[in-house]
């Protein structure tokens, strides 16, 4: 027995475990966190959020739209579950132009003025922008404090809310500054989706299509049958926002994303399948002055990447056609004339290549539910990119869907 060290700490095996109330992730690096699925999260009788607050001082942040729709309920909830004088709430500007270092500093300044100490927590109730800004602020405030995400958009629930990334835009670059900072808790209540504008639902569907294309042909076929998922029931009434179909799509997307993130939470490996749709899209977003939202730019990138795959002989015509057709049937753009030029898209490839340690790691579909990487810049000749953009322009002009 000499030399043997007994490890008495019980670590669950690495992986993602699903239960009726959510998902537990246990990463190989020891990071563990949970994403809860709940209903009526802001009903004072639902104590899930209250339990995560643990009696700590809370500084909450919401966007103007969330304040208008849910601000009163959130204030009533905090009144019921946080001690008087122990919580404050602030409305912060949203939109990609406001996802800045200045916004993160503003969040920190508000927290400091409210006396937030290192045991306290920031509470982000909103979409990806509020979560990214507040999460980043929490990662630097007093060298890092706790924060909780209550995810109110579809992008938030299937993507931002299940991972550990935070960030702000800077130096004309998306997410130039940021941190890997797991939330203390992350809560998804599908009822929030009932008030979400259809454009925002479509953005969430873009990230869901991403997961389906790279990993799950069954999910893809479901989306083909129901491109109106999350829009068929919603009438603004949170009680009529969800059916079995929505539950299946939401849970499947969350699980696929968490399983894919789990072994590579800190992205030491920069070849990431979940970055399908995220190589050309930062330039589509930024050079386009953010006319297209994140999910819309991701859709354009996925369609372009599908054509690249077809032209390189990595995917057959049918795969490319199905990806483009599904995006169009959902109502997502597949072409942006202003930014989908050979010049800008070549710039996008070079910027991704540089950021990814001088590897391209461009994700392309090789079938439905399967994907591969185009690793080197030279593997994607200029004439292939031009031909892919021409095919994309033709897709953009098609009237059928
Ligand atoms: N950190 C990550 O891992 C990660 C992952 C994906 C996306 N992102 C980032 O997330 C951002 C996009 O997030 P998003 O798509 O949630 O957009 P968003 O945060 O801008 O929200 C969209 C709009 O919907 C409003 N809104 C939020 N919830 C609502 C509700 N329930 N009802 C009505 N309106 C509501 C918001 O106020 C906002 O005006 C991008 O900056 C993207 O880069 C980050
Ligand atoms: O939109 C998402 C995930 O859907 C982003 O948060 C995420 O950072 C993407 O992974 C990035 O766009 C990838 O870019 P990079 O990290 O390679 O620069
Ligand atoms: Zn994304």
What structural keywords apply?
401 residues, alpha/beta, Rossmann fold, Dehydroquinate synthase-like, alpha domain, 2 domains, eight-stranded mixed β-sheet, two-stranded antiparallel ribbon, 13 helices, 12 strands, 42% helix, globular, binds nicotinamide-adenine-dinucleotide, binds D-altro-hept-2-ulose 7-phosphate, binds zinc ion
Measured by DSSP, the beta-strand proportion falls in 15-25%
The SS-based structural class is alpha/beta
Biggest sheet strand line-up: 1-2-3-10-7-6-4-5
**Ligand names:** nicotinamide-adenine-dinucleotide, D-altro-hept-2-ulose 7-phosphate, zinc ion
CATH level 1 class label of the largest domain:
Alpha Beta
Structure commentary:
The protein is of the alpha/beta class. It folds into two domains: 15-195, Rossmann fold; 271-396, Dehydroquinate synthase-like - alpha domain (Dehydroquinate synthase-like, alpha domain). Helix content is 42%, strand content 17%. It is built from 13 helices and twelve strands. The protein has an eight-stranded mixed beta sheet with strand order 1-2-3-10-7-6-4-5, sandwiched between helices. Strand 4, helix 2 and strand 5 form a beta-alpha-beta unit. Helix 6 (198-215) packs antiparallel against helix 7, helix 9 (281-287) packs across helix 12 (342-355) and helix 10 (294-311) runs antiparallel to helix 11 (317-330). The longest helix is centred in the N-terminal third of the chain and has 18 residues, at 64-81. It is globular and about 65 Å long. The model is unreliable at 1-6 (pLDDT under 50). The site of nicotinamide-adenine-dinucleotide has 28 residues, from helix 2, helix 4, helix 5, helix 6 and helix 10. Nicotinamide-adenine-dinucleotide (NAD) binds at residues 63, 65-66, 69, 94, 96, 99, 126-130, 132, 152-153, 155-156, 159-160, 163, 165, 192, 195-196, 200, 203, 294-295. Residues 7-20 have a biased composition (Basic and acidic residues). Residues 1-23 are annotated as: Disordered. It comes from Streptomyces lucensis JCM 4490.
